[in-house]
Structures are given as structure tokens and as C-alpha cells.
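Ticket #958: bound-state structure for adenosine-5'-triphosphate.
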Amino acid sequence: MLEDKSNIKAWLYLAPALILLTIFIFYPIINALFLVILSDYNYLQGTWQGFTLTDNFVYVFRNQNFIQALTNTMLITFVSVPVSVTLSLFVSVWLNSVAKSKGFFQTIFFLPYVTNAIAIGMAFAFLFNRNFGLINTILGWVGLNPVNWVGLGATWGNAMFSLLVYVVWGSLAFKIMVFLSGLQNIDKQYYDAARVDSTKKGRIFRRITVPLLSPMIFYITITSFIGAFKAYTEVIGMFGERLGPPGNDKALITVVALVYDALDRSGVPGALSEAAATAIVLFAITLIFTLINTRISKNRVHYAGGAK
Amino acid sequence: MAAQVQNLYGNEKQLRRQFILRQTYVFTMLIIFSIIVIIPFYWMILTAFKTEAQVFTSPPILWLTELNFSNFGAAMNAAPFLRYMGNTVVVSFFSTIGTVITTIFAAFAFARLNFTGRDAIFMLLISTMMIPGEIFVITNFLTVVEFGWIKDQTYTTALLAMTIPFMTSIFYIFFLRQSFRQIPNELYYAAKVDGTSDFKYLRRVMIPIAMPTIITITILNAMGTWNAYIWPRLVTQRQEFGLVSNGLRNAFNDLAGVVAYNEQMAAALLVTFPLLVVFLLLKKYIIRGVSRSGIKG
Amino acid sequence: MEIKIQNLTKVFTNKKMTETVAVDHLDVTIPSGKLIGLLGPSGCGKSTTLYMISGLLKPTDGKIFFGDEDVTNVPPEDRGIGLVFQNYALYPHMTVQQNILFPLENLKVPRPEAMERAQKIADLVGIGELMNRKPVQLSGGQQQRVAIARALVKEPRVLLLDEPLSNLDARLRLQTREEIRRIQRETGITTIFVTHDQEEAMSISDEIILMDFGVMKQKGAPQEVYDNPTNLFSARFLGTPPINIFNGEISAGKIKLGKSNLGTTDVKSQNVVIGIRPEGFKVDPKGPLKVEVEFVETIGRDTTLLIIDPTDPTKRFRGIIDADYKVVAGDTIQLSVKPHKMFIFDPETGEKL
Ligand SMILES: Nc1ncnc2c1ncn2[C@@H]1O[C@H](COP(=O)(O)OP(=O)(O)OP(=O)(O)O)[C@@H](O)[C@H]1O
Ligand SMILES: [Mg+2]
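RESOLUTION: The complex was predicted; output attached.
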């Protein structure tokens, strides 16, 4: 009957997913924790030189690219997330208030979501080309000199700026769609009430829209942070495996790139442990910022009403 | 009171003007923003149809009167893109079928069946969603090596290595469970009273009702494969086993920094085009699915 | 099919191990071929009782018999029941016809026969023309009929309806309940009809079972329960406007409300609760109750008076009198009480004395 537990049946239904998850998610988590305490692990021979709690993390921090990778990752995260969340909030509010052609704009704004990150990264690289790219042409129209964004010997700052433009561009679509559906779920009566009180548009946005949307803004911010900390394919798309403009290799290296760097050296003793340590550091950073985010948002998120 | 009413009527024209002004403003902003969104696509398409001479003209040509199709042929010569696309279709077909099946069964168990430890296991699954994939990748690489899918790689083992680890997804289980739970319990009771088995109920009632979500999962998963770069790069031992993203990046990874941009963009367009077609055909499901996937709870 | 319920008990235990007794030692026999209204306030355990009869829920204790057969441990599909839910529970992606055919599929009824039975039952409930529509294309009343058709098509021994009318508007509700009554008469299936609307239960049931906090309070023909409530709960639950309740006493065989003497009884002297139906008052210049009328409302042949309680001026009670008497607000009048409309209850147990 209804409350009877159907254990065997349930496990049969769960089995395919659980077996796969055990092999490819749960076991790897435990194994990563194991790898990280091995000293000089050589997976080809299956040997190691004792255990250590700190050595592998020390390798990570001593890696000559670590500081650069961390700086880049942080910069990408802390610029692209606030910019894209704010921008997409505005765009979705506009989109929600437009009387006609909503579907048309929605389709256009969604396009960046359905592209191949490598392909569109290449297009961005060429947009930022010094002599033949569109960006410098537009700058020329307003009387500015061409900038070497991504070409041979481009500075870290210029390359980073171009990358950020691409990252923000690519991350807007998802947020706009989510915010739009959130806005469409807000009861119209709040706006009618505000209109009756002749509230100004800007005030409606700050005092009604944002608070009612706040659980969603919070959720999107958190997931965007988690996503942005993992930035890597965007760099590959724009700059290739060189991870920087020609002549300035690895200028845009990220923390995830370090993991794959170490993984590429998997035959070298200790490399896998270093990869695991790097991934764990990344997880720790993500966790810390998620917790901080949750803390900050606690007092500002209004859970009553609003987005369902 | 009377004064107020009059005031309202007097304002009607003004209100109407305000409305038009505001709509114009919003429209303008949206159009500007649309242009920003479109530019990279336009640039890609434009360049793909330029001749080499046109590409290396400064200032660049912004409008073509004559289309040059030769870049596509050249791109195909630079790398076997049809082959990469074929690989991608095969990988995405199998991993999507696998994902959809395992997801439906697991979501059904979590949403409908009553068993010891259900909530605990579900919480365990959810809590792993925040862990960066890189932590899994390390061991998964060792695992597929262990399974013998890397050494002396054949096309079959390459496919296994690229599909099996992705044949389920916690996020999709979570997503589908939400849809399943929206189906009223009474439907299940009614079916039980009529002697319907759990499997038949799943097949005849739950799957049809949750079909939009299942279609969304199918599309999102297939699109994900089209975008996959890191894992296939890691586990394919021969270039011809790679997926589109790998093919694209490898073919135009010119270390000198000088690239035949027109060919590169032609290749990029080849890779992007199928995705855009799929999107425009299945827009409804994709937009709805993505919008919903952002809603927690 | 007679349904016998013995000592039926259901205790829900939630995660924090707190227990809710939803149905408490229920003992009742439901006669064959009758329509029984299971009536009680929200949360009193009606649905739980129904689900146990249907086999969807397992009793914590007690037994259920269909005729002589003990069905307590028989799974729902083998009990031969039809179940109709408050929200109809139609399969939204199937047409009316597919919905009605679904139960027969499980019974492996051959297709042509199944189609014929489906059509017959659809005609019986009056939706024969709607077979190819989806549930969303139907009105609430039509959906309701589809649900009933789906429950009836497998020719159940027992039909169980869980608040089947509560999603309908007032007019449709009246119409549909007549319809259910008609269908039940025509098929002669033993039917249990759950509702919390006393008027609904009274109007269509052969018998009603009154429940409160999982306990059966009274059972009987509607009018009988109304005329002879055995406890305060039954008295209060039936009737609109509801019965008037006063704190009174018995002294030396006299029923006393304040100083007024309302009648005689052989109950021994004690404090009691007196219940008087609104229609139990009569304007009578020699009546024992002298009261002030606060508000008068005349509808048709009846006049409803809102009267200030003589024993407690902060309280009001209602009386319904013949419209022939001309009473206006502010009047002071004398009332007498019809003895068969007055009931005396024990203030502690609520039982009738
Ligand atoms: N699955 C359950 N777990 C725990 N308690 C339950 C469960 N189902 C019902 N209850 C409790 O049992 C009691 C009776 O519930 P039931 O649904 O039978 O009431 P009802 O008479 O049908 O009410 P309503 O008229 O509101 O439908 C209620 O207190 C309810 O909270
Ligand atoms: Mg109920």
C-alpha cells in the first residue's frame, strides 16, 4: 500500500544512475582526498613515498603560475559577475516592460547561450584584432588610436579586458532568461498598487522589483560565482592553449588551467596529487565565497512572495 | 472627488505621451543591446565569406556585395570537420540517451517511491552539485585508463570514454524530479486503485506529462556535448576521434599568431550553424527549460 | 455490497515521531446499495477513512469487510472499488475516452468490449458526446462526470467519492449532486460520499455518518440525526442557521435558563448545556422567555430574529418564526420553546441527557 516502503524496487530504479554516480562522482571525491595526502605518487607504477598533509598544497602555492592564475580567476569573477548580473537585470526589466516584439528580442538575447564557446571565442579574438578587427575600427570612428588587444606582445591588461568583454557577453543570456521568467512571475498587483500611489519608475525598480526578485538574484549570483571561478574554456576559445596573447604566454592562465596543466604531466610523480590539491583549493575558494555570499544576502533577500 | 476624476481625465493625453516616450526609450535600449549581442555572430559570418585580401584590408570591410564560399572548402581541408561533427553527433546521441534513461528512473524513484534513506541520498546528491568538476576529472581520467579505454585506443573505446562518464546528471535528476512532483498524488492513487503497476504509471502517465521537461533535458544535454572541449581533449588519443570544439581549436592554433581568419571563421560558422538551427527549431523548449532551471526550489 | 468496519484505527507518525490519530477505533456497518454521507469538519479523518476502505492506506488497527470477505490486507486493485477525488485526478494528456478506458486496460478487457462499456458508462453520466476531448477542454462539472465514469466503468462493488463537489460552483454543485444521486440509484452500487458540507450530505444521503477527531459521533438517516442528536457535536454540526447553545441548569425536574423555566424533564438536577434549534421558538405572550429583539430579517414566509441572550447580554441567538408575527427591531417579546426542538447535554461529555 501507499506508505509501504518499496526498497528493492526503488533501488532497481536508482541503480543505473547510482552506479554511474558512484564511479564518476562519489569515488573521485574520495580519491581526490586520498591523492592529496600521497607524497610523490606515481600512478604508472602505483607507488608513493609516504603521506603528507601539506606538501601537495605547497607545490600548488609554489607553482610559478599560481599567483597569476589566482589573480586572473579572481579578477574574472569579481568583474564579470557583478557586471553581468546588473546588466542582465536591466535588460530583463526592459524586456519585460516592452509592449511588442518581446519574443523577437528574447530569441536574439538567447543566442550567446547556444553557441560553441571555442567558435565564438575565436570570433571575439578576431573582433579585437589590432589592424583588421571591428573594435579598433569603431574606436577609430571616435578618434581613438588602435589598441593592441590580443595580438603579438599585447599587454596583460588589454588581453584581460578583451577576455572580460567576451565572458560577460557569454554569460548574459542565461541570466536574462532566468530574470525574465522571475519578473513574469511577480504578481502584477504590486505594480498596480505602486502606480496608484504614483510611485516613480526608478523607485518601483528599487523598492518592488529588486526585493521581490531578490531570491532569484541571490541564487543567480551564487551560481555565477561558482561558474566564474571555473573560467577556462573562454580563455582557450580566445587565446588557444597558449592561454595568452602571442609573446605573452599564460598571461591569462586560470586556476582550472593549473589543474589540467598538472594532469597533462600525469606521468610525473606527484603531478596527480598536485592536480587534486589545486582542485581542492579551487573548491575551498568557491565554498568560502559562497558562504560569504550567503551571509551578506541573508538580510537582504525577501523570501515572501516574489518569484515562485 | 470630482476634482480628482477630472484630473485623471485631464491626464490621459499626458499619460499616453509618457507611455510612448517610455516605450521608445526601452525599445532603443533593447535594439542597442541586440546589436551588441549580434556583432560577434555578424563578424563571424562576414569574415567567413571574405576573400583573403578582403580579410587583410584595413580598415575592415563591413559589408560584402559578393559572397565567397571557398573558405568552407578550405576549412574542410584544414581539418576533417565533417568527421568531428559526426563524432560529436554520435557521442551526444549515446550520452543523451543514457542520461535521459538514468535520469527518468532516478527522478521517478525520488519523486514517487517511498524507500529507506530517500531524503538522505537525495541530499547527498544535491550537496555534490557545488563541487567543481575538476575534482572528478582527475580520478575519472585514471578510471577510464583503468578500464582500458585509453591505451591502444579504438574508435569504440574512445566513444566509451567520452560517453559513459556522462550518462547521468545530478542536476537533471533534480530538475526532472521537480516536474514529476508537480503531478498530483491523486493521479497515482487513481492509477493504483485501477491496478496500474509503477512502471506502467511511469510510462503512461508521468513521462507523457513531464515530456516538455524531458525534451528540454535532451536538448540541453546534446548542446552540452557540442560544447565539450576539456574531457574529449583529455581522453582522445588520436585527433580524428575528437569533437568539434577540439577540431576547431587544433586546426587554428597557429603559434605565430597569424591565422587565415576567413578560413577559421568559416570553420567556426560550420560548427555554430547546426546549433543555431536546432535552437531556432526548438526555441520554445530551450528557453522555457533554461528559464526554469534557474529557479530554485 | 455491505461494508463492515471494525475497530478501524489510523495513526500517522511523522519524522519527529509525533503521532496523529486520524481515525480512532471506528466501528460502523454500511448497508448494501445505499448512499452514505461521511460528514465532518476538515481534518476529522474522512479522507483517511476512505483511503483505508480503498486500500491505499493501511490501517494501524482494525478490520474491513466487504460482505463476508475480509479485505483488510487486499491491495487496492483487487478490492473492486471505484474512487473519485476532489480534484478529479484525470490524466491530463489523455482524452476522455482514454481516461475511461485506462482502468479496463489493467483488467485486460478485450478492446471492443472495453469501448462498448466506456461508451455505455459515458452515456449514463451524460458525457457520451465528449469522448475525444482532453480534460482541459471540459468544464468542472463535465470533468467530474468523467471521473465518475472512470470509477464506474470497471463495475466496482463500492464507489468512494472524496469531496467530489467541492471544486464546483454553487449552482453546478446542486445539479451534480442530484446527478450523483440518480447514478447511484440506477447502478445500485454501495457508495460512500465524503463531504464537510452538512447540507450536501443531508440532501443526498440515505444515511449519514458524523465524524469528529477520528471518532464516529452519530449515524443514521439525515432527518433522524437532525431530530435526535445524541451529542452536542451532532446538534451543532447539522442545521443552518446552527442550533443555539445556552448554559442552563436542571433543578427539580425543570429546565431553567436563567430564571426562565423552559419545560420539564426527568434528568436529575445539575448544570447542563441547552440546545434549541432556531425554529424551536414560538412567539407566545404567555411564554417563559422575555427577550429583546435586536435585528429582524424577513425572507419569504420566515422571519429570522437576532435576539439578545437574556442570561448574558453580550451574546445573541437566532430564532425563526412565522412571518405572520409582526416584530420590529427593539421590540421586547415573549417566547416559548417547542419541546422536541430542545435538547439537553452534559456540559462535560457533550452527551445528550
Ligand atoms: N500522510 C499523513 N501524515 C500525517 N498526518 C496525516 C496524513 N494524512 C492525514 N493526516 C492527518 O490526519 C488527520 C485527518 O486527515 P484527513 O485528510 O483524513 O482529514 P479530512 O477529514 O479528509 O479533512 P478535509 O475535509 O480537510 O479533507 C488530519 O489531522 C491530518 O493532518
Ligand atoms: Mg479530505
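RESOLUTION NOTES: The radius of gyration of chain B is 26 Å.
TICKET STATUS: resolved
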